[in-house]
Amino acid sequence: MSITTAGPEPAPSVAISPIPRLFSLDVLRGIALLGILVISIWEFGGFSTNQQTRLKLLQKGLDYDLYATITILFEGKMRAIFSMVFGAGIILYLSKPHQPLTYTHEHYIRRQMWLIAFGLINVFVLLWPGDILFQYGVMGIFLFPFARLNKKALLIAMLITTLIYCGKIYWFYADDKKAFRKFTAVTLVEEKFKKDSSERHRKDSIAGMPKDTIRVRDSIAKKNDTLTIFQKRDKQSWEGILKGSKYDSTKAGEKAENKAMRSGYGEVWNHVLQRSQNKESRWLYQIGIWDIGSMMLLGMALLGFGFFDHRFTKGIYLLLAITGIIAGIMLGWLRIEYSHIKIVDYLKYMKGHVIPPNQFFPVERLLLATGYASLVMLLLRLNIMRWLGQALSATGQMAFTNYFIQTIFCTLFFYGYGFGYFGRLSLTRLYFFVAEVWMIQMVFSVIWLRYYKYGPVEWLWRRLINGKFFSNKKQEASLQ
Amino acid sequence: METYTAQYNPAPVAQTDRIKTVDIIRGVALLGILLMNIPGFGFNWDGWYNILHGPHDTKDYNAMAIISIFFEGTMRGLFSMLFGVGMILFTQNKVELPGGPSVAEFYYRRLLWLVLFGLFNAFILLWFGDILYTYGLCGMVLYVFRKTNPKWLLVLGIACMAVVMFKKQLNWNETREQRRNYVEAVKAQKEKKELTGEQNAALTQWPGRENQKPDSAFMNRNLRTMQQGSYQNIFTYWIPKNVRFETFDVYDNWFWDGLAMMFVGMALFGLGFFSNRLSTSTYTMSLLIGYGLGIPISWIYFKQGSVVPAASLAHYVDSFRVNHELLYDIRRVLLSVGHASLILLIYRSKIVPWLMKALSNVGQMAFSNYLMQSIICTWFFFGYGFEFYGKLHFYQLYYVVFSVWVFQLIFSSVWLKYFRFGPFEWLWRSLTYWKKQPMKR
């Protein structure tokens, strides 16, 4: 390669080289893509947090078993695998052979920026506030300078980000504790007001003051004994936290939510706007960077170690799968148990526990995601259920398209401008719906990829990145 | 993997390659930014309200009017424009060696460090008005547009402004609706009709909005914390505010604010504006247009958009379908162009070469000077320093500004006599290239 000046040449001598594909990554991506719906269906379908709180409080019944199982096995884990695969994809994309580095890098940045744009469409046009494309676009740019690190450094970076993630979770818990301390201080002030006033009342009576004077003095004292605006805020702040941690049997929040989500496009747009913006700003800043970043870094490192190329022995994959899954489930189970205690009485929980129930969620998710990935690698190696592997790989190859299809299906099924099933299906029924979507997506992906090289959105994406038209048909490619 | 370290010295922009006028304008913008930032450093917030409400023949009011009309947003605007220019220069001047990192890699490393410097400025130096964080994020978008032609860059800049305007108008519509509901509810109340729940809510909502008088409890606490608080106090006091700024405020507004001007700046640079390539008559023309349109619009913006609503928000809401805030970007683009043209014309006329030299020094180490403003001003005003917070009149703040200016002009000139970069520039570069950069001349 000769010395190139900055910036890509307008017409490169090399053809647009395809990204090297790894079958295992496609399968994992397919699994993660389908798996993501298991959790996002809650938000799509109106299985509210209040209902989740109710189940966690109840701790019995079929719904609870289903909910608990899914929480432990899926919550956060599918996104984790998705991020992991995305991270590995970053390295693969950047190591495209036969192409000047500058050119690749230029395309990489464009790719991420288009991803951000697609994310914005998914959020603000298709109205899916739980979108992650935006976050992936941003994180891909943040991690770009890290792609050159060696695999060990990447692994260390992953550990550091996971630790920071745990730290963040502790920080939020510490904030709650602080809110309670402030609240206690305010209640002491209130008690003092009460005590002082009754004391004075008693003394006045003993001194033999006329009743009218005493009454006037009482009312003056009452007027003076008001909390400052900050004390009031401190009080409200803790009361709000406490209320938020409890089950609301009036279901007022859910009713309002259902009503809004079952109305027309404009109202739904307005209703989800704040949540969408919050996810793209505050959530990304506080949690997303660590949540997504750590798993992307893991994927980048694992690719370097040859994890996705079957460079480990079967024994190692088996070991990783067993330890990861078992340890992950243990942590997940503990999380559920402790969050039950928290919901019963948050105050009591806080007094008795140094850490919040979800303190080790980042680790739980890391373990389970790694365990799952290892299990999949092992199954691929054993070469069983090939047809399923093929279907999942097809789904994963056009994950971007499928992600959009999930949004379109679910919004049209649940939101008011579609069939309006929001909040109307039980948990079990929601999962029948999920299974239907899975089947449709797998069949569709397999059929589509029989005729075309890329999924429609993937094709559009590549076309936008390269800035020129290319044919997506398979036959033409073989003719060339 | 890192084979480039030995033979490859990724040279920073060589002295001879620096475009002098770009440095000069950046210097002016850097100093000018303090004009708008100084109240943030040292003025208690209710001061704004008191000045706008109080008699309009005070020194404070005049100072505020002048600063708002001529400078508000323009210096940050120029600074953003030149940040865009800096991106082009950075990517143009780099030579890649085989096996070594590409320009893009250096560029994004540099920006990630900038984001971290921004966090440092906000959370450690405690300057809540930090822009480095925002610039770091905006810069990440710019890279792919470094070769876009000026016409399209202008379109992009305008599109970003349109986004901001759209958001502002949406907010304004909401305000107007609050007001409308309130008026209807009052009418219904007078007619002794039974009010709906929404109408009852409207009755309390609007008066809360209309009363703009800052709550004295909040103001006193702010004053007490900033004036007397220890570093620890002020540090914790600012955390939630900084977080809010860096999450929602940046996402909602500042990102677009910066990006719009960066695109415009890149476009103007492409046309040769900042590099002193246009004719004197063109600069005179841009000066006349910039100031000729910009100052009147800016005057309307201040009078109608700040003073009138401060007197009576209800009256203002009833009179205007469109908020004057929508003029913000238009006026500041015009004024920024006017300011830049003026500087370029002065540079050409060679009246004050020593000043231009000094300004170019300030501009060359703009990054250090920006952080230094945070250090000096927080120390001067905050409780852990000299405790001047809230003690000066509005117009007196500008004595501080002049002192800082003089100091920075002299300091930069002396520093650059002995060193190649400003201290923070040196640190930034060393971090970007992950190699200690030569410092001494």
Notable traits:
heterodimer, A: 480 residues, mainly alpha, 19 helices, 76% helix, elongated, B: 441 residues, 17 helices, 0% strand
Helix/strand layout:
The complex is a heterodimer of chains A (480) and B (441).
Chain A: H1 23-45, H2 49-58, H3 62-73, H4 77-94, H5 101-124, H6 133-143, H7 151-207, H8 211-224, H9 229-245, H10 252-261, H11 265-305, H12 314-344, H13 346-352, H14 361-382, H15 386-397, H16 399-414, H17 427-451, H18 456-466, H19 474-479
Chain B: H1 20-42, H2 46-53, H3 59-71, H4 74-92, H5 103-124, H6 132-142, H7 150-190, H8 197-210, H9 216-228, H10 231-270, H11 280-311, H12 313-319, H13 328-349, H14 353-364, H15 366-381, H16 397-418, H17 423-433
Helix pairs in contact in B: 1-4, 1-13, 1-14, 1-15, 1-16, 3-11, 4-10, 4-13, 5-6, 5-17, 6-10, 7-8, 7-10, 11-12, 11-13, 14-16
Order of helices and strands of chain A: HHHHHHHHHHHHHHHHHHH
Could you give a short account of the major beta sheet of chain A?
A: none
Structural class of chain B: mainly alpha
- How far apart are the termini of chain A? 27 Å
Number of helices of chain B: 17
- Our count of helices of chain A gives 19
Rg of chain B, Å, rounded = 24 Å
The helix fraction of chain A, in percent, is over 70%
Q: What shape does the CA trace of chain A take?
A: elongated
